[in-house]
Amino acid sequence: MRILADMVHTTPHILDVSEIVRPEQKLKEREAFRDYSEKNPLQQRVKKTYYEMHTNQTVDFVKSQHEKWLKFDHVECTIMEALDKLNSLVDESDPDFDLPNIVHAFQTAERIRADYPEDDWFQLVGLIHDLGKIMAFYSSPQWAVVGDTFPVGCLPQASVVYGMDSFKDNKDMQDSRYNTQLGMYEKNCGMKNVIMSWGHDEYLYQVIKNHCEKAGTEIPEGGMYAIRFHSFFPWHTGGDYNYFMNDEDTDLMKWVMRLSQYDLYTKSTNIPDIEALKPYYQSLIDKYLPGNVAF
Question: Does the reported pTM lie above 0.90?
Fold first, then answer.
């Protein structure tokens, strides 16, 4: 591991709000790993995080994060080193589930492997999907690391967590370029051409894209879509923002939904033998993401 920028936190605490609040009816009808009541003290913290997110995630803010992070000049490390680093993250979203983050990564990958034994790239995507959270070591606020994502530069839609009230102080909502349904975009422009709120999904997508271009490797587009949009619940589960979709989105959306479901519903106390599994997953890393990756 080669540290290029000093880490601000050695054991950052993170509250993964996507795992706590799921307003979409499709997910309400499913049994989540843990049930949080509205009176749970975590709920007020979750609400605060989302209100801060929806106030501060503007077009200008997202562009500033692209400028900051897409130089890929914070750390260079192998994928396994990055997974080990995430073990220092303290996930406060589930105080009853205090296993290391690497356990969830391997649980997700192994569940995918059981259901998709031929799609080794999708197994790898399951393993690495949270690596963008490495931003938390560099003092990024929680609302710019975790939580449901949404497009900036247009009017928020009904299924966004906490609704329009949470955007009342977002300056883009006073800007006529951005406060309509389509905002700065055109109908059917394609999700690839929409600027998403900044978080670990978009960051990891850009990190992997950059590395594959340099290494001459390729993860299938379904895997890249899954990494980039798996926290975009208002789209793939809430049914909103479909007016931005094109034919490619329609075809690839299934991979986004698959990863999202494995991500939310694979946490358990059944711990895989990580050391025994590492050689297999290292072979996938060597195939698709070899060497040191620049974050």
Answer: no
Report the C-alpha gap between 222 and 256 in whole angstroms: 7
Q: Comparing C-alpha atoms, which of 4, 38, 32, 3 is closest to residue 18?
A: 32
Tell me how many helices (H) and strands (E) the chain has.
Answer: 11, 5
How far, in Å, CA of 246 to CA of 201, rounded? 21
Please list the residues that pair with 91 across neighbouring strands. 14
Q: How open is the CA angle 93-135-148, to the nearest 5 degrees?
A: 50
pLDDT tens per residue across span 213-247: 999 999 999 999 999 999 999 999 999 999 999 99
Q: Is residue 148 within 8 Å of 121, Cβ to Cβ?
A: no
Structure-token match 């998709």, residue found: 116
Give me the phi and psi of 184, to 5 degrees please: -85, 5
